[in-house]
Every structure is written in C-alpha cells, then in structure tokens.
Design goal:
The chain has about 240 residues and is mostly helical. It has a domain of about 140 residues. It contains 10 helices and no strands. Helix 7 packs across helix 9. The termini are far apart. GO terms for molecular function: endopeptidase activity; metallopeptidase activity. One of its GO terms (biological process) is CAAX-box protein maturation.
Length: about 240
C-alpha cells in the first residue's frame, strides 16, 4: 500500500475492481495514517505560532483560527454548520479537486460548475437567506456552469503520464493551501508561514487523491466526510 501511495504518477492506472470489504479496509487504513500525521504535525503549528507571537510580535494564528470557527458557527448555527462541514463541503471539494483528475471534458466542466459555488459569496444578501433559497441558487450555479463550460471547453486528448502527474500534484497542493483561508484575516507580511499550518490538509489532499484513484470517486467523498466528521467531533469536545 505504501509503495502505491508514494507512486503518484501511477495513480491513474490503479485497479479499482476490488471487493467492497477490501476498499473499506483500505479507507480505514488511510484514515489512520492521516490521523497519525495530523497529530504529528501539531507541534509544527505550535512552534510556528510561537514564532508568530514572540518573534514577529503578531496575533496568534491559531487563536485566529478558533475565532474564525466560532464566528462560522455563530453565523450558521451549530446544526447547519455541521451539515456544511461534514457533508456539503466534502462533496463540493471532491467534485472540484478530485473529479476532474480524469481530465475528461465532462468531469472538468462539472468541476468548474461546482467551483461556481465560490462565486455565490459575491451575491449580495445570499448569506442571510434560508437554506432552501441557498440550495436553489447553488443548483442553478452548478447546472449553468456545467452547461456553459461543457459547451465551450475543447475536447481534451488523453494526457501523457507527465502531464497527468503534474495536474495531480497541483490539485493536491492547491487543495491544501486553499485551507489557509480558515485563518483569516491573514498576516500578509508572514504569508510564508501559513503552509506549515495547513500541513494536515496537504496530507489530506494527497490521501484523498490516492483513494479517489484506488477505490473510486465516491470513496474519496466518504473518506473526506469521515475526516471532517471526526475533526468536528474533536473540535466540539476540546473547543476553548
């Protein structure tokens, strides 16, 4: 398993035709590795936060994260926030980052359609609307985005192994770095230090990509939901 995990260039050729039990056991193993690396990376963020507060004399980035989470829960309420983090976010993020790794036109168009959800934040007053209105707007954005991009995107030739590997690695990195937004507002003068805070998400992107190719796309969503749900449980247990 570890040999396969490190051979990113071979991901597209992995065999997904295996029994359910085999896939489920692999998912649990990968989650165990992700959980362990999450624990091992915690001291890194502690050291970084010490540098931020005692060397750069800025506000603790970890404190900003906790405050950001509290603000998020206050805005949406605990029930809706949990649904968003544990269900909606995994589906959306997997569709954006892992679905298009086949480099098929339809998958890329659908990924871009889901990426249109990010633009929904720019719609005035939408955040204050009820869940039903938001879901309707999201459905319109996804559908229209998919139809537009599927219409105008050119047909894509089967990529070479080198291009496929580059796209896969870029997807992993962008997915991880995207989570820097959880630490808003950012200290722009020490932007270089933020990647150390999102090491767990960088590892997570790597493992989700492996599961996506090894088990199938839906299994990537399942692993993502598991990771977020356990993280949410730990947050609710140990929140300050």
């Amino acid at each position: 398993m570890l040999k396969e995990l490190f051979a990113i260039s071979d991901y597209p050729s992995l065999d997904t035709e295996r029994p359910f039990q085999s896939k489920f056991v692999l998912l649990l193993k990968i989650y165990g590795i992700a959980f362990l690396l999450n624990i091992l990376s915690a001291p890194v963020s502690v050291v970084c936060d010490y540098l931020v507060t005692n060397v750069f004399h800025l506000k603790s980035i970890r404190t900003q994260y906790w405050q950001s989470m509290l603000k998020f829960f206050k805005m949406y309420g605990y029930a809706r926030a949990i649904v968003y983090i544990c269900i909606i976010a995994p589906v959306v993020e997997e569709c954006i980052f892992r679905l298009p790794l086949t480099l098929k036109k339809q998958h890329i168009a659908l990924a871009l359609g889901f990426a249109m959800l990010l633009a929904s934040r720019l719609i005035p007053g939408l955040q204050q609307q009820g869940t039903v209105i938001k879901l309707l707007v999201w459905a319109v954005l996804i559908t229209s985005g998919y139809l537009i991009f599927n219409r105008f995107l050119p047909e894509i030739k089967p990529p070479g192994k080198r291009l496929q590997t580059r796209v896969t690695v870029i997807s992993i990195i962008v997915f991880g770095l995207m989570h820097i937004s959880n630490y808003m507002p950012l200290h722009w003068d020490i932007l270089f230090i933020y990647p150390f805070y999102v090491l767990p998400q960088l590892f997570m992107g790597w493992f989700l990509t492996y599961i996506r190719f090894k088990n199938g796309f839906v299994w990537g969503i399942a692993l993502h939901m598991l990771i977020n749900s356990v993280s949410m449980l730990l947050y609710m247990t140990f929140k300050p």
